[in-house]
Design a protein that fits this description.
By secondary structure, the protein is α/β, with parallel strands linked by helices. Helix content is 36%, strand content 18%. The protein has 11 helices and 12 strands. Strand 6, helix 8 and strand 7 form a beta-alpha-beta unit. Helix 3 packs antiparallel against helix 11 and helix 5 packs across helix 7. The longest helix has 26 residues. The radius of gyration is 19 Å and the shape is globular. The N terminus is likely disordered.
Amino acid sequence: MKNILFLFLSLASATGLPLDAQAEEKTSKSAQYFAKKGMAHAELFPGLINLCDIESEIRDLSKRKRNSTSAKKKKSGKSRSSGIPATKVFDNLYYVGTGGVSSWVIETSDGLILIDALNTERQAKEYIEKGMLALGLNPADTKYLIIGHEHGDHYGGQAHFVGNYKTKVVMSDVAWSRMENNKLTVFSPRWGPMPKRDITVKDGETISLGDTQVQVYETPGHTPGTISLIFPVFNNGKKHMVSLWGGTGLNYGPDLARIQSYTDAASRFGDITKAQGVDVFLSNHPTRDGSREKLKLMAEHNKNQRHPFVQGKDVVAKAYEMLASCTQAQVLRIQQQEM
């Protein structure tokens, strides 16, 4: 786990090219080439398609004012977040998110690990807590809350679990530091309060609880402090490995260095997931990873059918190829515009 650099250097690339050939490919090919390469997997991962859009401007949410009128209207308007009931997805993994933002619960032999806390304390109570209860889980057993990145739609409900159940909050050092130093660039008056520094996790470390270990990797790009996870799940006792990509969209304008870090992180994490035989791809938005459609299929799923969330190792590898290729296309597009 600690020798991530060695692991990366020893693996074949997501494209099957040696590392020097990868570097040559990145410098010799065009933005259009990489966009096309990413879009080759669009049918498998339609929620990632907009990353490959090199014709439109990259949106920049940092330009949105903290107390904008539109944000306030959203706060008082009808919620668009409902629509997905709490669902048992694997023997030890549950969905308790909304229609727009994911929240996952891992059940272990010694309590629960919650991944992301939605926008607000109200949502944490209405969707996560009530969802847990509906699925036969005890919210008081929530020992850890892992937050994928420093945006309020993932940390906004944390105070409900910290205040009521003494849940420990886990984030990367970069995420904690950006919060503490007021360096966050995306805000909404809808979001709940930021957490106070609790557990800081480093690249390659694990969060262990009972019989379960969640591997954590730093994958900057969506935000500088984004982390992604790998952990085991079981379907009728059969083991599968999940990778949860901690932050997907580009929402900070044509920031060349930051998007390049996204490309590099997706490529590296893709190699790690491939080496570990990961066969399930998740993210923290149900429209990004296809969870919205797959959760509907779970209602009719029986143990004799292929599990809707088990895509297979080769398919999961293509998700990370798409993430890396699409963002490399954006890097080259920006470079071409700056020439």
